[in-house]
Design a protein that fits this description.
The protein has 275 residues and is an alpha/beta fold. It is built from 12 helices and 12 strands.
Length: 275
């Protein structure tokens, strides 16, 4: 039997996860095994469940219990399903729910880099990409355009922040990813690790001696890591110096660069593995 609970008390502690805890509090850096994230919309929630994440509770419009949420509720057995009309949910959460549904879920332990890259031929490396919208958009492009995995430096926004998940359309649950462990491993030992796994590295950077993105050398690499930098400043000089290639997307009309999410889509399309 579904455990349907109509919301009558906004202050109920069970609703803190949706209404009062910040993304950093949900992440729970001090006890990562207790970390939580929020998935939004039926499609995204389904992708998270398919990827093996464990649901804690639902928050949804009352009208969805017997419609678009019916199969999800049945799939998740006896977890609480908190319901209310949309206007009440909007007041509670502070935003209008996409497709009228949220699901709180436990995070999974981060896999080691070697596991994430075990069968990969093309990977994306994100350096200090801080905007969750950009992270989500990059994941969507990576999943769609031939990347096998995504690696992130510790300064990046977490892919399981609610906005990143939503912008990615749940592809954060479909493409393998993990963070480089520790604060001082990139580029240093992080680059060494990639080289040890057979990857050549391509820095997307605005340098005069850059290769054109359609250079045949890049396409012929058996394993290639495409390295993308932070919004505004791009990649650190040390990172660019240590990469095997520096790659530039040709520009016109006096534009010097693309947003990192847009640049990632161009790079993945040109350098990804066609399947």
């Amino acid at each position: 039997m579904p455990n349907i609970i109509e919301i009558t008390d906004f202050s109920a502690r069970e609703l803190d996860v949706y209404a009062r805890l910040t993304e950093r509090q949900l992440l729970n850096r001090h006890e990562p095994d207790k970390g939580i994230f929020i998935a939004e919309s039926p499609k995204v929630i389904t992708r998270a469940l398919d990827a093996g994440y464990t649901p804690i509770s639902f928050l949804m419009e009352s009208r969805h219990v017997e419609t678009q949420a019916k199969e999800l509720i049945a799939r998740c057995a006896d977890i609480p399903v908190y319901t209310a009309p949309l206007d009440v949910l909007t007041r509670l959460t502070g935003f209008q729910l996409t497709r009228g549904m949220l699901c709180a879920m436990y995070r999974l332990p981060l896999p080691p880099i070697q596991q994430v890259c075990a069968r990969a031929r093309r990977i994306a490396v994100l350096e200090q990409v801080e905007n969750p919208t950009n992270v989500g958009a990059i994941f969507r492009s990576a999943a769609a355009l031939g990347m096998d995995a995504v690696l992130l430096t510790p300064g990046c926004s977490n892919p399981l922040y609610r906005r990143a998940i939503r912008v990615s359309m749940g592809t954060v649950f479909q493409i393998p990813w993990t963070f480089f462990p520790g604060e001082n491993v990139w580029p240093g030992s992080g680059m060494d690790l990639l080289a040890g796994m057979g990857f050549r590295t391509a820095a997307m950077a605005l340098c005069e001696d850059s290769l054109a993105i359609d250079d045949v050398q890049l396409a012929q690499e058996e394993k290639l890591a495409i390295v993308l930098g932070t919004e505004g400043d791009g990649l650190a000089a040390d990172t660019v110096a240590r990469c095997d290639y520096t790659v530039r997307i040709p520009m016109s009309h006096g534009v010097d660069s693309l947003n990192v999410a847009a640049a990632s889509a161009v790079a993945f399309w040109q350098l990804g593995i066609r399947r």
